[in-house]
Amino acid sequence: MELHQDPAYIMRPGTVRVLDFGESALLNPSPVVKEEKEKDMLVEEYLSPSRLQALTETDDLQEVKVLEMRVDTQDSSLGNFGIYLPNLIELKLNNSFIVSVRDIGTSLTKLQVLWMAQCGLPDLDGIPSFSSLKELYLAYNNITDISHVSMLDHLEVLDLEGNNIDDIMQIHYLALCSQLNTITLEGNPICLKPSAEAPEDS
Question: What are the angstrom distances between the C-alpha of 49 and each of 55, 62, 126, 143?
Fold first, then answer.
């Protein structure tokens, strides 16, 4: 996982944006295969307190409220980096590659807004760990099962545009989210199915 800070991005106090620009245009003809232990060390380096302090330009990580980064969790999860950011409220991971929601840890208990659009997510297993979520943006993933969302008691906004939901029973789970007032389902197969109340063609 290679992370870069974008110098053109103007950060607000307590805000950090980390971007992964993918593979370099100059390919190494004899790539070195890193040992698993070394890979783990790289993840620790990128998301350690000292790394986060450098990116946020603050020594007190408790002041950080917003974090934006792009990551690839195919080889390893991000661990519980949230323990270093106890007051993080907003996390933006759009255009990342995230194998599972569990890959971003279970320690972001104060998180209220989470963006994971276009991350290749196949499901939402692990989302109940973010018990304080009020807004969840999941557009353009591969999600078919949203039953886990029903455990988010404080959820108010849910964006599921462009996913693969095709079963009306999945929508029924959302009735358990008593605070939910905005939902986007455009672009899902379920939107193409004829309504049971629609009049039949004569």
Answer: 10, 11, 24, 33
Give CA–CA dist 18/28, Å, rounded: 24
How far is the C-alpha of 93 from the C-alpha of 186, rounded, in Å? 21
Sign of the CA dihedral running 59, 65, 68, 73? positive
Query: How many whole angstroms separate alpha carbon 181 and alpha carbon 135?
Result: 10
Residue extents of the structural domains in the chain: 17-22+60-191
Residue 72, SS3? strand
CA Rg value for the chain: 19
Q: What is the pTM of this model?
A: 0.74
Rounded-to-integer distance, Cα 117 and Cα 137, Å:
6
Q: Are 154 and 176 in contact (CB under 8 A)?
A: no
CATH superfamily placement of domain 17-22+60-191 = Ribonuclease Inhibitor (3.80.10.10)
CA pair distance 43, 20, nearest whole angstrom: 13
pLDDT by residue, tens only, the chain of 202 residues: 445 444 444 444 444 445 544 444 444 444 444 444 444 444 444 578 887 787 778 889 999 999 888 888 887 677 788 999 999 999 999 999 999 999 988 899 999 999 999 999 999 999 999 999 999 999 999 999 999 999 999 999 999 999 999 999 999 999 999 999 999 999 999 998 766 444 444 4
